Amino acid sequence: MRLFKSAWNLETRIKRGERTQQEFETLLIRLGETSGSWRDVESRLAALPPGDLTETDENKLKTLERSFRNQLRTYGLSSTSPDTLAVSRENYKPIHEGFDIEFNNSASDLIRTLWAYYTALLETSVAFGGNHPGLLILDEPRQQSTARQSFGTFLRHLADPSLAAQQVIVATSEEDAVLKTLLEGQTFQYIDFEGKILRRLPESG
C-alpha cells in the first residue's frame, strides 16, 4: 500500500514538473517575441530626427519661407522688413518676430502678406508634390487700397510658367484696360462678365 502511494506521488510530481517545464518554455518563446518587438521599437526611435520635423519637412518649410519673403520684397512691403517674417514651425502660419502678424500701420501690407503666403503654399506644393489641390481662388485680392503697381506684380507672379499646371482664378472689379496693361506679355485667360456674376435663376413655368 505504501509502495503504491509513493509511486502515485512520484508520477504526480513528474507530471507537474512536465507542465511547469512546458509553461516555462512557452514563456521563453513569448519573451523572445517581446524582446524582438522591443528592439524594433528602439531602432525606430533612434532613427527619428532630433526635433519634431524630418529633414524633408524642414526643407519644405524653408522653401515656403523663402518664397513668402521674396514675394513680399517684390510687392513692396513697407511696414517691416520681409527678413523679419517667418513661417511658424508649430502651426505653419506666417509670424513676425515669433508672434502672429499684425501690421497696425498698413492694412495694405497685410493684404500683400496674404498674397505671398497663399501663393507660396501653392508653389511649395508644386516643388515637393504636396497635398495642395492645385487650385487657388482669389476674390477681389486688391483690397485696402493696395498700390496698383503691387497688384500688377502679384498678377504677373501668378501667371508665371511654373504655375501653368495649376488653376489660379482671380475675380476682380478692376477696369478691363487696367488689367490688360498690368498683364501685358503674360499668358492668361480673360473672362468678362456683364452685370452681376451671381444672378437669380428665372422661375420655371
Kindly state the percentage of residues in helix: 40-55%
CATH topology heading of the domain at 55-182: Rossmann fold
Q: So how many helices?
A: 5
What's the arrangement of strands in the largest beta sheet? Answer: 1-2-3
| Mean residue pLDDT | 87
Task: Provide the CATH top-level class of the domain at 55-182.
Answer: Alpha Beta
| Helix-strand pattern | HHEEEHEHEH
Description:
With 205 residues, the chain is mainly alpha-helical. The chain is built from five helices and five strands, in the order H-H-E-E-E-H-E-H-E-H. It has a domain at 55-182: 3-Layer(aba) Sandwich (Rossmann fold), CATH 3.40.50. The chain has helices at 2-47, 55-75, 107-128, 148-158, 176-182; strands at residues 85-87, 94-96, 99-100, 135-139, 167-171. Helix 2 (55-75) crosses helix 3. The longest helix is centred in the first third of the chain and has 46 residues, at 2-47. The mean pLDDT is 87.
Q: Summary?
A:
With about 200 residues, this protein is mainly alpha-helical.
Layout of helices and strands:
Blueprint: H1 2-47, H2 55-75, E1 85-87, E2 94-96, E3 99-100, H3 107-128, E4 135-139, H4 148-158, E5 167-171, H5 176-182
Parallel strand pairs: 4-5
Antiparallel strand pairs: 1-2, 2-3
Helix pairs in contact: 2-3
Identify the notable features of this structure and list them briefly:
205 residues, mainly alpha, Rossmann fold, elongated
